[in-house]
């Protein structure tokens, strides 16, 4: 019955779209890319750059923000609890995105006020706006990266140590930032594993002392781990600790 209702609703929506699609299809769209006989124009280059940025936007979200540390910690937490599919990946990614927005809010606000607003008001050009957007992101990443990791990639790129941290090139800062984030995520994940491992060991010892060696300990320990996590308000603690770890 539910499937039948879904089919009916879908047919109604398609019918509605077909009835009112004539006006939409009648609209004309034009894109001025410059002279047909001239060389490669600036507008074409801007269009290519825009499409490229849109295509790599998910990757930029991962490598330039706090998303990496947050999603890795949440995944390790799920593994530590022994629930491989709960919460589902969609929920974890959604939570990680919202936490990333909270962490990156000051950085994004600075970029908006210093770059986007002047660009909208036609006070600066696109190259200057791009430079101003990169400055707060660069400062955020520089505040989270380890000097050892940064020195490693500076050596790999064959560059000398910059005179000031603000002049550190992105090609060395981005990979150094990523491995620094992974290190911190694994450190937090190790601390999260400890209480759940203790619960597993206690349950396994009790089952062995009772002679119930054929009963999987994970089957008995899972409810205790869930109750323990709820009683200590685990989601609140993990979320608060993750956000404050970027302070």
Structure in words:
This protein is an all-alpha fold and 247 residues long. It has a domain at 61-192. It is 76% helix and 0% strand. It is elongated and about 75 Å long. The N and C termini lie far apart (53 Å). The relative contact order is 0.09. The model is unreliable at 20-27 (pLDDT under 50).
Considering the chains and any ligands shown, give keywords for the structure.
mainly alpha; 247 residues; elongated; single chain
C-alpha geometry: elongated
| Beta strands, count | 0
Helix-residue proportion? over 70%
**Span of the ends, CA to CA:** 53 Å
The biggest sheet amounts to: none
Overall residue-averaged pLDDT value:
78
- Our estimate of the beta-strand percent is under 5%
User: In oligomeric terms, what are we looking at?
Assistant: single chain
Radius of gyration: 26 Å
Low-confidence stretches: 20-27
Taken in chain order, the helices and strands follow as HHHHHHHHHHH
Structural class: mainly alpha
The total of helices stands at: 11
Give a brief outline of the structure.
The chain is mostly helical. The protein is built from eleven helices and no strands.
Set out the fold topology.
Elements: H1 2-19, H2 21-26, H3 42-55, H4 57-63, H5 67-81, H6 89-120, H7 126-144, H8 147-156, H9 170-209, H10 217-231, H11 234-244
Helix pairs in contact: 5-6, 5-9, 6-7, 7-9, 8-9, 9-10
